[in-house]
C-alpha cells in the first residue's frame, strides 16, 4: 500500500516518487494555473504540496480502495464471443486536446481524434470527465466534438469531484473516483423504475477511463488507460498516434467480460511501437490528408514490419 506521508492517504499507486511536503499556501511560491483555470486562493491552513508537479494534496485525503476491487481485478480474463457495451470516460485536456496555456481558446485536437470518436460512439457509452471548470470543458467540446456533443451520455467537470470549496479553486490532485459515476447511473436506473434497465449498470468489469494522468484513476487502477500527455511539443510535432493505438486496444477490450482483469494483465502501453496494421493506417491517413512529410518513414516502417511478421 501507500508510502505517502499524508496521514489519510490510501493511494495504491506503486509510483510514490513525488514528494509531498507540508507547505503553507499563504507563502509566495509561484504556481502555474492548472487545467481547471484555477487561481490559487490564499489560505493560512498548512496543506501538503508536491513541488515536482505544483499540485496540492486533497484537503480531505484520499478514500481507501473498495475492498473487493483488487479481488475482482485479479480474476482470470474471459474473452467473449460478442462484444459488450463499455462505458468509456474521456478526459479532455492532455488526452484529446492540447490547450495553450497562454491562450486558453487556442485548442489543438490530437491526431486520429475523428476515427477514435467514431468508434466510441458506434460501440460504447461515452461520457466526458474533465477536471477543468465547466466553461473550459464547453470550449474544448465545442471545438473538437461538433454535433457529437449530443451523443455524450453525460459531461462532468470539476464540479463532479465532490471537492471542498477550498480545493475547487486550487491546483489540487483530482481523483476520478468511478464509484461516483456508477452510483449516479444506478440511481437514474432505479428512479426510472424499469427493471430491464438494470442490465445497463456499470462497474469495474465494463468501464474504462482514458486519461493522461495515472494518478487520477488510482482508486480503480485497472480501469484506466494512461496516455502520454498531449502537450505543446506533441501538438506542434503532429506525429502523435496515441488515439489510433487506444482505438485498436479498445477494439479488443470490448470482447472482455471483465476489463479490469484484462487491463491488469495487459495494460495499455503508450510506449509500444506501432504494429504493422497501425503503421499502414497511419500512412493511409497521411495520404488522405495530403501529408507526405512522414510518408517515407512510415513506408519503411511498414515494410520492415511486414518482413518481420511470421
Ligand atoms: Mg488531462
UniProtKB/TrEMBL annotation:
Q: Which residues form the signal peptide?
A: none
Q: Which UniProt keywords apply?
A: Mitochondrion, Protein transport, Transit peptide, Translocation, Transport
**Does this UniProt record's set of keywords contain Transcription regulation?**
no
FCP1 homology domain mapped to chain residues: 81-253
Q: Per the record, where are the segments of Polar residues compositional bias?
A: 1-10
Cellular location of this protein? Mitochondrion inner membrane
Known role: Essential component of the TIM23 complex, a complex that mediates the translocation of transit peptide-containing proteins across the mitochondrial inner membrane.
Q: Gene Ontology cellular component? A: TIM23 mitochondrial import inner membrane translocase complex
For this chain, the family text in UniProt reads: Belongs to the TIM50 family.
Protein name from the UniProt record: Mitochondrial import inner membrane translocase subunit TIM50
Chief place where the protein resides: mitochondrion
**Keyword field contains Isomerase:** no
The UniProt regions of compositional bias labelled Basic and acidic residues, in chain numbering, are: 274-310
Which regions are flagged for Low complexity bias? Answer: 17-28
How would you summarize the oligomeric state and partners of this protein?
A: Component of the TIM23 complex.
UniProt-listed SMART domains = CPDc (SM00577)
Record-level GO BP terms: protein transport
Membrane-topology annotation of the record = Single-pass membrane protein
Region annotation (Disordered) ranges: 1-44, 273-310
Amino acid at each position: 500500500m501507500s508510502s505517502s506521508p499524508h496521514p489519510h492517504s490510501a493511494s495504491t499507486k506503486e509510483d510514490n516518487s513525488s514528494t509531498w511536503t507540508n507547505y503553507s499556501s499563504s507563502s509566495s511560491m509561484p504556481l502555474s494555473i492548472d487545467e481547471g483555470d484555477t487561481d490559487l486562493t490564499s489560505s493560512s491552513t498548512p496543506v501538503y504540496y508536491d513541488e515536482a508537479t505544483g499540485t496540492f494534496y486533497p484537503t480531505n485525503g484520499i478514500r481507501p480502495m473498495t475492498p473487493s476491487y483488487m479481488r475482482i481485478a485479479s480474476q482470470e480474463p474471459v474473452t467473449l464471443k460478442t462484444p459488450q457495451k463499455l462505458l468509456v470516460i474521456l478526459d479532455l485536456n492532455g488526452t484529446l486536446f492540447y490547450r495553450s496555456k497562454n491562450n486558453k481558446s487556442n485548442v489543438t485536437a490530437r491526431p486520429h481524434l475523428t476515427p477514435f470518436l467514431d468508434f466510441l460512439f458506434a460501440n460504447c457509452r461515452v461520457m466526458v470527465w474533465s477536471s477543468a471548470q465547466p466553461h473550459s470543458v464547453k470550449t474544448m467540446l465545442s471545438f473538437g466534438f461538433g454535433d457529437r456533443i449530443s451523443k455524450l451520455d453525460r459531461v462532468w467537470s470539476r464540479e463532479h469531484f465532490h471537492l471542498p470549496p477550498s480545493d475547487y479553486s486550487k491546483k489540487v490532485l483530482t481523483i476520478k473516483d468511478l464509484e461516483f459515476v456508477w452510483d449516479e447511473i444506478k440511481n437514474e436506473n432505479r428512479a426510472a423504475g424499469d427493471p430491464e434497465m438494470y442490465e445497463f449498470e456499470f462497474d469495474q468489469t465494463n468501464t474504462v477511463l482514458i486519461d493522461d494522468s495515472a494518478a487520477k484513476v488510482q482508486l480503480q487502477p485497472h480501469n484506466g488507460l494512461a496516455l502520454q500527455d498531449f502537450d505543446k511539443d506533441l501538438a506542434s510535432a503532429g506525429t502523435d498516434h496515441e488515439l489510433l493505438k487506444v482505438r485498436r486496444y479498445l477494439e479488443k477490450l470490448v470482447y472482455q467480460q471483465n476489463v479490469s482483469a484484462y487491463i491488469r494483465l495487459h495494460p495499455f502501453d503508450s510506449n509500444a511501437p506501432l504494429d504493422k496494421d497501425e503503421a499502414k493506417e497511419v500512412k493511409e491517413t497521411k495520404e488522405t490528408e495530403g501529408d507526405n512529410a512522414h510518408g517515407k518513414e512510415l513506408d519503411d516502417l511498414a515494410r520492415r514490419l511486414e518482413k518481420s511478421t511470421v
